[in-house]
Amino acid sequence: MVHPAVHLRFLFSENQPAQVFQALLQAARDMKGLTLEEEDVDTLRFGAAFRTPACGWIDEIEILVKEGERADAAVVEARSHCTNVCCGWCGPCRCLFGWFHMYSDNGKNTEHLRVLADATHLAFEEVLVEKKGIALYSQQRSR
After folding, report:
1. What is the pLDDT of residues 55-112, one digit of tens each?
2. Closest CA to 81 of 1, 2, 4
3. Most CB atoms closer than 10 Å: which of 46, 71, 90, 121?
4. Cα dihedral value 23, 47, 88, 7, nearest 10
């Protein structure tokens, strides 16, 4: 069984990795439904859990910021995946249908990552690295 997952790469030109990391970290702190679970300023990495507002489905997010090919650029490796865990009202129903493991993320994994990147208010390009399961992905975009 493969849960829906997406791996995006955001290329931030003319921005230092530490600056991009701080902007993403602040965006994560401000994002409704997102809870930071771990952060490491030294390695420019953080993890978070996103809980959907209606039902409480949990998606996990991992962000790693590193230097780009140019000195004034940053690369963000952004991953989001569905955990198939629901803490809300639909949780008890999930066990009744647990045998049926094929489900879509309805594009939410990509949306979580894009909302974070957009919230930095910095210019970036987006590249799809990989998607697994029934993860919906719409056309690449840049800001």
Report:
1. 667 889 999 999 998 888 999 999 999 887 655 555 555 555 544 556 778 888 999 9
2. 4
3. 46
4. 90
Residue count (the chain): 143
H/E run at residue 21: helix 17-30
> In this predicted model, what pLDDT tens digit does every residue of 113-141 receive, in sequence order?
999 999 999 999 999 999 998 888 988 66
Q: How confident is the model at residue 42 (pLDDT cuts 50, 70, 90)?
A: very high
- The distance from CA 34 to its chain's CA centroid, rounded to whole angstroms, is 10
Q: Which of left, alpha, beta for 18 (phi over 0: left; psi -120 to 50: alpha)?
A: alpha
Pick the closest to residue 2 from 132, 118, 140, 117 (CA basis). 132
User: Whole-angstrom distance between the N-terminal and C-terminal Cα of the chain?
Assistant: 35
